[in-house]
Every structure is written in structure tokens, then in C-alpha cells.
Design goal:
alpha/beta, six-stranded parallel β-sheet, 18 strands
Length: 674
């Protein structure tokens, strides 16, 4: 073991919290396994959390191999496998909800929080903060939750050392300042990107992870490389042997099969989980020369990558296109060079296309003044956010940005706390006053929480009891709700109220329930854009047939969007509801018809993918249908549930499992072998 591994394991064995801030490839996984093992020996339950489902599932199978499949569970929101196991791999949000729901009565003996730098993410950071606030407790033996926080890019951790020590009563040790086991070499490429990739492969610097920041660019890069000679016949035969009888379904499956057999992998969140795991498995076996992907592979997935090639140094963050931050760059670059595989890792930044072309023109002109004068420089594309070699150099040595608190309170979080036995208001006070926010922001959270609570009371979901119940509860659910009812969306309470407006005897009742559910779910953007394009193409063809002039056609097209059943009814109901709930002004329903479209046309998943050209976004469609399934299972009051709704929910669950049940199937296979 490395000295820092020995130090970390000894501290964990002695009962201390550990903050492990060491470079990628320095053996943090071994320390995590040690923490899990110590908890197991003590008879305590351990949770291993990670930010993305792909990493959670990888750790799940890794721990199954170490501790036996019967001892390891998986909880991701999409899948629940062996949930009562003594060792559980879960997304951070799952453990945050356990902390909210159970508070100090939780059974979390050890929490391993991998990729803890996500604490600083504006939209998800709350899920890394809540366990620090709510999990610390003391059991009958005087023991309480022990924490292992890990990341390669934490920056200054002094605050967390002091905070954890105060909350848990345990010593908290920071292990950092460790040299990278596999050094990195950095270079800037001024050749066209396909030439850069071919050169890296030819000189033995593969596997090459080509990083893009959109799914479309990643797939297009993979397809563009099909003309390159990356693999020998023997290497292609080895890939074919490894693929065996793996079933590639229609849609993206055919494309992926062709890419993989040429030594090219594609990896992004829009793919089906079983395809992502296949790419990871082939890469782990050293069979792929290139993986073109988004930054999903930059989040700790254990794939041996020798070279990281940045196709660009900017990304669109949902609001604007900006340069990469130091932490983002270091996280992805850290994938290069893995201990046990390489003696050096390579990080390459690809120059922008217009800079490459201008450099080629300059070289061609040489020192000839006439040619230089005539040369027409290629301009950057419109809206291009400038970056170059200087940007790359600055990122290499830039320190990781400080992590800021991003606590928030949602209706779903509030419901979790309200359902606790005992004094839920004292628990809320603790959560709202003991978080890491400055006092000014704490006061805003308190006001917002009061508004959310009033919303639940006025909607009739929650009633405050005059005297505490036998279990000390101060509130009770006042409508008939399923046992696992969850308000997972800011508009969930509005949906509960809107269901009451529907006629259960109507022939369209099931479809109308689906429309209300869909209106409060997050938009599956790629699916909706495809539906809008199909609607506009159909309208354009009809207008041409009707002889409508071009200018008028263009004006009409702007008014056409994706299908929005019950849009007027939902909008009217929301405006009425909002008058009594003004804090919802910034959150509006988004009517759409994805599941409803499938139901009305009795379309299969494959037919939906084919109709709207969603081969590159199958995973997006599957996740959205999973969101629909969860909302139908857990988000409807019993008064809205009919036999037809229950049948629909069961059928949707079977459809989802039929499309991709890879995690459940692999666990079953592991258990059978145990």
C-alpha cells in the first residue's frame, strides 16, 4: 500500500472520520473498501454514495465481487436491488433522503461519499450537505455515523474537518498532499483532430478518451473515426469474441455494434445503461482504442485511459457557454494514466478548428510576403467563446475553486422530515439552522420552508395534530396516500389538487392523469425537440400542398411545438392554484405528450425511437418513462388511483424492464454464482 492508504485505513480503524483528498489513481477505492469492511466487522451498515448511476452500478458490482452479491445492495431511484443488504451502493440523493426521513435514528454506520467535490454543485450540492447535517448520531454503544469523504479535487478542506469533528464527536483527519502515482504529460495539438487521434494511437498512447461536452458531438466523433485504421484484424477478432452473443437492439444498437467492432467506444448519459456498461467492460479489458464520450467517464468510472484528449475547453452549462473551471478540467484530465496500467498519462488539448486551419495556411505561405498578404484567415464561428493554448496552460496549474454551500429546501425534502416520528418541527429547525449557509440565506430558506408547509396544509396533504400522536408525530398525512407517496417535484402538490378536477368516469381519465403527471416532470429535451421537428415537418408538407406562401409558412411554423394535451386546462388550473401559492410564480407546468403519445398509439419503445429518430437518445427516453413510472407509483393520492391506472403502472414497469434490466440481471447472475 501507499503510505497515505495505510494512514487512512489506520485512522478509519481507530474510529476517526477521514477526508481523503488525493490524486486520481492513488488508490482511494482500496481505502473505501477498508471502511466498508471495518463497518461490516463491527456489525454496522455502510453506504457508498456516488454522483452518477453509472459509477454507483460499477461500485455495486465491484463490492459484490469483494463481499459477495448477497451482502451488497443497490439504490439509484431507477433500480432497487437487495435493498436490505449490510452494504448499499446508492446515489447521493438516496442517502440524503434517508438522512432527512430518519434523522438521528438512521442505521448508517459508515458513509463513504465518493466524488465529494459535488458538494459545490449549484443544483445537486444539497445532497452531499444534508447527510453531514442529519446523519451524525450516537447509538446505544456510543457509536455514530463515521464519514469517509473522497475526491481528487477538494481544494481547502479545513471547514469540513472542523464541521465533522464538531457534529460527530469523532476526530477528523485530512489526508492530502500526496504526489500523483502516475505523472501526467501535457501537450497542445495543432493538427486536425482525426490526425491527432490517429497519431496518438499509432505511437502507443491509446486508449484515448476524446472528451466532448454534448452527446451529439461524441457520437459524431465516433462515427467519423470509422474511416481510421485503429485496430488490427487480430484486435477486431478479440473484440468480436468479447461481444459474443450480446444483443444489440434496433435504434442506436446497430451503430454501437459497428463502432465497437472497429475499436471505438461511445459513452454518454443518453445511452441505455446496458450499452454504457458494455463500453466500460470492453474498455476495462483493453479492447478499445478510442472512447468518444461526454464527461460522464470523468466522474470516477474505473476505465484504464492512457490519454485524455479535450476536443474543446468550453462547455454549455445550461445557461451559457463558458470556459472549463479548474476543478472540471482536473477531474477529467485525472482519468489519464492509471496505476498498474501506465507509467505516464497524457493530457492533450485540441486547438480550435479555425486555429488549426490558420496555422496550416501560415505554414503553406511560409515567408513569402505576397502569399501572407493574400492569405484569408478563417474566423471563429459565431458565438465562439475564445480559448487557446494559454487557456490550457493556465488550467493545468490553476488551483481548484473553493466549494460553496448550495443548500436548498424542496417540497420533497420537507415531506421526508414531516414524516419522521417525534417532533418534526424541531427536526426542521435543526436542518434549517445547522446547515452550512450564511445566516442571511438561512433566513430565506426558513421563509421558503414556511411557505411550502402552508402549501401542504392548504392543499390538504398535511394536517397539524392538536396533540402529538403515540409515536410523537406532530403532523399527519390528511389525504389517502400510498405508503411510499413522494412529492418529488415543486409542482407535485399542484398535481394532487389538479387530479380532483378530473372525472374518473371519463373515457379519457387515464390519459388525462398521465397528462397532469407529465406536465410536472422535467422535460426530456431531446425527445420534445424531435416531436416538434416531426410536427413541423408534417405541417410544412401540408402547407406546401395547400399552396401557402413561403413567408406565411415560416410564420406558422414558429407557432408549432410538441404536442401539449390539456395545456389550456392545466394552465387555467395552475393560475387559479398560484393565486393562493404566490411562491410558485417561477415554476410553471410544462404540458407534453410522451407517455400519452405511446398509449394513444399503442407504440412500443422501439417504435417511439424509430418514429422520432431517438437512436442517440434512447437513455433519455428510458429515464423519462422511468420518471413517469415513479410518479404514477408514488405520486398519486389513492383517490386518483383506479384499476386502469394500476394496470398502466404495472405495464409501464414491465416495458422499462424489458428495454433494459441489465443491473437486475447481472446481480441475479452474481447471486446465483455465490
Amino acid at each position: 500500500m501507499y503510505p497515505h492508504q495505510e494512514e487512512s485505513l489506520l485512522e478509519l480503524a481507530s474510529g476517526s472520520n477521514v477526508i481523503l483528498a488525493t490524486p486520481t489513481g492513488s488508490g482511494k477505492s482500496l481505502v473505501a473498501s477498508g471502511a466498508v469492511y471495518f463497518a461490516w466487522c463491527r456489525g454496522h451498515r455502510s453506504y457508498y454514495t456516488a454522483p452518477i448511476k453509472a459509477l454507483v452500478s460499477e461500485k455495486f458490482f465491484d463490492l459484490c465481487n469483494q463481499f459477495g452479491a448477497e451482502n451488497v445492495g443497490l439504490l439509484t431511484g431507477d433500480a432497487s436491488v437487495n435493498a436490505d443488504a449490510p452494504i448499499v451502493c446508492a446515489t447521493a440523493e438516496i442517502v440524503a433522503n434517508i438522512a432527512l426521513r430518519e434523522g438521528p435514528d438512521n442505521d448508517v454506520g459508515v458513509l463513504v461519499a465518493d466524488e465529494f467535490h459535488y458538494y459545490g454543485e449549484s443544483d445537486r450540492g444539497w445532497a452531499w450537505q444534508v447527510p453531514l447535517i442529519e446523519l451524525p448520531h450516537r447509538d446505544a454503544d456510543g457509536d455514530g455515523t463515521q464519514f469517509l469523504l473522497m475526491s481528487a479535487t477538494l481544494g481547502d478542506t479545513e471547514f469540513f474537518v472542523d464541521d465533522l469533528t464538531r457534529r460527530t464527536g469523532r476526530d477528523t483527519v485530512e489526508v492530502t498532499g500526496v504526489p500523483r502515482p502516475v505523472p501526467l504529460q501535457h501537450s497542445y495539438a495543432m493538427t486536425p483532430i482525426h490526425e491527432t487521434i490517429e497519431e496518438l494511437v499509432s505511437v502507443g498512447k491509446s486508449p484515448v478518451y476524446v472528451v466532448h461536452f454534448t452527446q451529439q458531438q461524441a457520437v459524431e466523433r465516433g462515427q467519423a473515426l470509422l474511416s481510421a485504421k485503429l485496430c488490427t484484424k487480430e484486435e477486431k477478432a478479440a473484440i468480436a469474441d468479447a461481444l459474443g452473443d450480446f444483443s444489440f437492439s434496433t435504434g442506436f444498437g446497430g451503430t454501437l455494434s459497428k463502432l465497437l467492432r472497429s475499436g471505438i467506444g461511445v459513452h454518454h448519459a443518453g445511452m441505455l445503461p446496458r450499452y454504457r456498461r458494455l463500453v466500460e467492460r470492453l474498455a476495462q479489458a483493453g479492447l478499445l482504442k478510442v472512447v468518444a464520450g461526454t464527461d460522464t467517464l470523468g466522474v470516477g468510472i474505473n476505465v484504464p485511459i492512457r490519454t485524455v484528449l479535450f476536443a474543446g475547453l468550453t462547455k454549455y452549462d445550461g445557461t451559457r457557454t463558458r470556459r472549463l473551471r479548474a476543478r472540471e478540467f482536473h477531474q477529467i484530465a485525472g482519468r489519464a494514466g492509471r496505476a498498474g496500467f501506465d507509467t505516464v498519462g497524457y493530457v492533450v488539448a485540441q486547438a480550435p478548428d479555425h486555429d488549426v486551419e490558420n496555422a496550416r495556411l501560415l505554414a503553406k505561405a511560409g515567408d513569402d510576403p505576397k502569399k501572407l498578404k493574400k492569405m484569408v484567415r478563417r474566423k471563429a464561428p459565431e458565438g465562439f467563446v475564445s480559448w487557446g493554448e494559454q487557456t490550457f496552460t493556465a488550467l493545468i496549474d490553476a488551483p481548484d475553486e473553493p466549494m460553496r454551500s448550495h443548500f436548498r429546501m424542496t417540497t420533497a425534502m420537507l415531506m421526508e422530515v414531516l414524516e419522521r416520528p417525534g417532533d418534526c418541527f424541531a427536526a426542521l429547525r435543526h436542518l434549517l439552522e445547522e446547515n452550512h449557509e450564511p445566516r442571511k440565506r438561512q433566513l430565506r430558506h426558513i421563509k421558503h420552508t414556511i411557505a411550502l408547509y402552508r402549501d401542504l396544509c392548504e392543499t390538504g396533504i398535511v394536517t397539524r395534530l392538536d396533540t402529538p400522536g403515540p409515536d410523537g408525530r406532530h403532523v399527519e398525512l390528511s389525504v389517502d396516500l400510498p405508503e411510499n407517496f413522494a412529492l418529488t417535484n415543486p409542482l407535485s402538490a399542484f398535481a394532487v389538487a389538479a387530479f380532483e378536477l378530473l372525472d374518473a368516469d371519463s373515457e379519457t381519465y387515464v390519459l388525462d392523469v398521465v397528462s397532469i403527471v407529465e406536465s410536472i416532470l422535467e422535460d426530456p429535451r431531446q425527445v420534445l425537440m424531435a416531436q416538434r421537428k416531426a410536427a413541423r415537418d408534417e405541417a410544412m408538407a401540408q402547407m406546401k400542398a395547400d399552396g401557402v406562401e413561403y413567408e406565411e409558412r415560416m410564420e406558422r411554423l414558429e407557432e408549432i411545438t410538441w404536442p401539449q394535451p390539456l395545456a389550456e386546462e392545466i394552465g387555467f388550473a395552475y393560475e387559479t392554484y398560484r393565486r393562493g401559492h404566490p411562491w410558485l410564480a417561477g415554476t410553471t407546468p410544462s404540458p407534453k405528450s410522451v407517455l400519452r403519445h405511446m398509449l394513444e398509439r399503442k407504440a412500443t419503445f422501439a417504435e417511439m425511437v424509430s418514429q422520432f429518430g431517438l437512436a442517440r437518445s434512447e437513455g433519455v427516453l428510458l429515464r423519462y418513462l422511468t420518471d413517469c413510472y415513479r410518479a404514477l407509483s408514488n405520486g398519486l393520492p389513492m383517490t386518483a388511483v383506479t384499476d386502469a391506472i394500476e394496470d398502466l403502472t404495472d405495464e409501464l414497469g414491465e416495458l422499462i424492464r424489458g428495454v433494459d434490466s441489465s443491473l437486475l440481471d447481472e446481480w441475479a447472475e452474481l447471486t446465483a454464482q455465490a
